[in-house]
Here is the input.
Amino acid sequence: MPSENVNVLLELHALNTLDIKYENLSWTTITEIQQCISTVLKKSVIDEINKSQYFSLMLDESTDITVEKHLSICIRYIKGGQAATTFLANICIQNDCAHTIMTATNEWLSKLGVDISKCVSLATDGASVMLGRKTGVGVQMQAKYAPFAIQTHCFAHRLNLTLPDSIKRNETLLKFRDKFGALYSFISGSANRITTLKEIQKLLEQPELAIKEIHSIRWLGLKNAVDAVYKCYESVLATLSKFANDKNAIDKGLHKYFSNYKVALLIALMLDIHRELSSLSCHLQKQYLLFSEIQPVVESTLGRLEHMKSNDGDCLIEMRKSIHIKDNKASYTGEVLKNDGTDVELQFQTVKLEYITNISKNIKQRFSKENTRVLENMAHVFEPITVCSSSGDDSKQAVESLADVYGTQKKVKVIINDLQCGGLSATENIIAPIVDKQALIKEWPGFSAMIMGSFSQLTVSEICKRMILLHCEIYPNLSKLLRVALCLMVTSVECEHSFSYQNRLKNKLRSSLKSEKLDILLNINMCGPMVKDYDPIPACTLVK
Here is the structure.
């Protein structure tokens, strides 16, 4: 809520006979109250992070409405034996180079009292500044501060990148995407066309849906655009037909394209495919997603896509039922569809097979592009199904590999350009191993018996919770490794969520909002409880 509305709300409460002791609060007072609320919320999170022993970071950068660059820092840690993911900070940065991002992250964590060397995972989008092999943020973090931090390219971003790759060499699908963009521009560019579409939708008793724009930066942005046209396809054809009679060249081209039998089938096909991909995308955007949950849902999606090669999806079946073909002429609820003859079905099946094959291939490639074996080894140690189905040697080798990674002392080195001394100064630190290498290997036989016995029906998260809370004294090193496993972050979607909040808070009407105030409001919005559950006493004690 804007600060200018606070006093109005207080007056409203007073009119409703509530005992309001304060009125006409200044903006300075309101800001101080907001800062106290944010401080209490952040202190609570920081205390939980420091108790967690290990944590993972999610980093992403964005530009706001005033073209200021912001770095979003989100964090995952252990709370009560379970993974907890939350927003930590929104920082204004001068530029988006790797050194700036890494320095800002380290300084902010130090300011909050969080030891960056305890970071065991870093999740980012696919930008080269983050993933760069020589000077990327992940490389710098490992070399300077957190040697055990494993960098992950966000799986939700990977999925979003599969679609452009799958259609970039297919002229039919490239034209399909461009025509949907042209349709949006044509309809939304005129109030008369928008009104006409709504009137026809109402007349035909179809849902009043606006034509959606294709956003390349949104998760699977094509799906919503296709869904809207599919649900009111008859209305779209009628609207285009009406304006085509007005000798509008653009509309004539759009009407000619969308009133094509093959295009009608393509619309239904694309919706069937993108609904499956959208389901996978939503799963990959879960706040508490664990590494063990990814492979099963990916394999399930690939299986359903493979099934579509030889079987029509629900939308395609429905579209075929709605299209009437007689004497090689096609029509959709009275609207004539151009039918190019018997070759149409063959052409459609060719496009269908090629698109599904390309999507499946790209998903397999992008989801196997992990530069480390740590996730695979974690599965061989902590996933009951994997442990039970694989040979004992595989799991033992996985334990030994993890022992080598987390049971070895690491050295980090920070080089600082000291202008006063006129040269460079280097600071080296030794980071102690997370686990005792030999002790971890000795703990494995007993734990493997539990995995294949009483823990065989449990999920990874349930096993982690039991081990951390109940068996940490018996298996101290495996418990530490389980904490690391829970912290392993495979998505940076929480940062994207914070940017959505950022853009809602700092909009055209509040473009002068300073970065410090923006961070306070973001913290309250994303980390604060519901009003009915909020205890104001801790914040009140901080107000001067």
Notes: The mean pLDDT is 87.
